[in-house]
Amino acid sequence: MPKLSDRVHTFTDSVIRRMTRISDEHGALNLSQGFPDFDPPREILDTLAKVAYEGPHQYPITFGAENFRQALAEKQGRAFGRTIDPETEIVVTCGGTEAMMCAMMTICNPGDKVLVFSPFYENYGADAILSGATPIYIPLVPPTYEFDLSLIEDGFKQGAKAIIVCNPSNPCGKVFTREELMAIGELALKYDAFVVTDEVYEHMVYAPNKHTCVASLPGMYNNTITCNSLSKTYSITGWRLGYLIGPAEVIENAKKVHDFLTVGAASPLQEAATVGLKFPQSYYDQLLETYTEKRNYFLAGLDKIGLKHNVPQGTYFVMIDIQDFLDLPQFQGWTDLEFCEWMIINIGVAAVPGSSFFKEEVNHLIRLHFAREKSTLDEALSRLSKLQELLK
Ligand code: GLN
Questions:
Q1: Which of left, alpha, beta for 250 (phi over 0: left; psi -120 to 50: alpha)?
Q2: 170 alpha carbon to ligand 1 midpoint, in Å?
Q3: Over the stretch 145-160, which tens digit does the pLDDT of each residue have?
Q4: CB 390 within 8 Å of CB 325
Q5: Nearest CA to 245 among 278, 181, 187, 200?
Q6: Cα of 97 to ligand 1 centre, how many Å?
Q7: 243 and 84 Cβ atoms separated by less than 8 Å
Q8: How far is it between the farthest Cα atoms of the chain?
Q9: What is the three-state SS of 125-154?
Q10: Within 13 A of 328's CA, how many CA atoms are on the CB side?
């Protein structure tokens, strides 16, 4: 067989999505890949049913259907505290995944450096490789996930073109404070670099933490590319609706990248989801209340079992410390991946091994998510309680 590209040998498949496949094979409760097991809002589904007969069913405008972009500009304009031009400052993509890839392809030349916090959402590594960029990792140090600003400045001094900020942060649940983002932004401006943000969990920020859009910070708009998605906010991860927002010159070029990558996101789904983008503030308040309850309930359950965990400030992920288990004779020398595979088969709960998010050698953390109905969380907690028996 002729040889494949060198590029494809430099990264693995997504471990997050692999864990879902293994979980399904064994019929486990899947708390690995983050997606809800409850329905999207009724209004969106009713509109989708109507769209089935009334259309549209053909290509949308490549950079997004007009009404979808208009609704998006209004919603995100409120978040950014400025007017967003839906014609020149938005590209609608196939999910947040394409948005990030599109941002990287738009700003990076092969050989460019990009700053990435570690732990990171695993797509960023592959995005860097596919766009030819080299990541420089900035540790977010567990358990508090703080970072050293001087390392960011060092990275920019090495010529980094951009910094990727996932806020709230997958997998560690960190919510960057306004002060932290201002400091990062100041450095980006000083070294003439971009801040590329991934804000897909923007509506899952638990009190007293607050979400700050980098694009809303004074002087930052022209250096910021915001990647986002409707997946988490409207519980429609399978619809693959994402977007980029940025200054017109960036977006004009991102539109070309997007056009040749995918042409466009599904037009019937854009039409149906436009209803969601027009929801009043009460929808987002309710969403946050629901996730706050789930978070508190699940964390309390973990405490009762005695599993050590962080307290996420945002997102629907929690990191569990499995070191006590890895110290047991039967797990000596095991990797976190092996432990997760064992857990799927023997405990019936799927998690993501933490090592797939860290650049550093981290083998003692696994990620679970709680975007599940209460009954599913109960079942998961009851299964997880079997883990603790191993320590007795
Ligand atoms: N963000 C989700 C997670 O980290 C998965 C997203 C995806 O698989 N595209 O689990």
A1: alpha
A2: 9
A3: 999 999 999 999 999 9
A4: yes
A5: 200
A6: 9
A7: no
A8: 63
A9: HHHHHHHCCEEEEEECECCCCECCHHHHHH
A10: 12
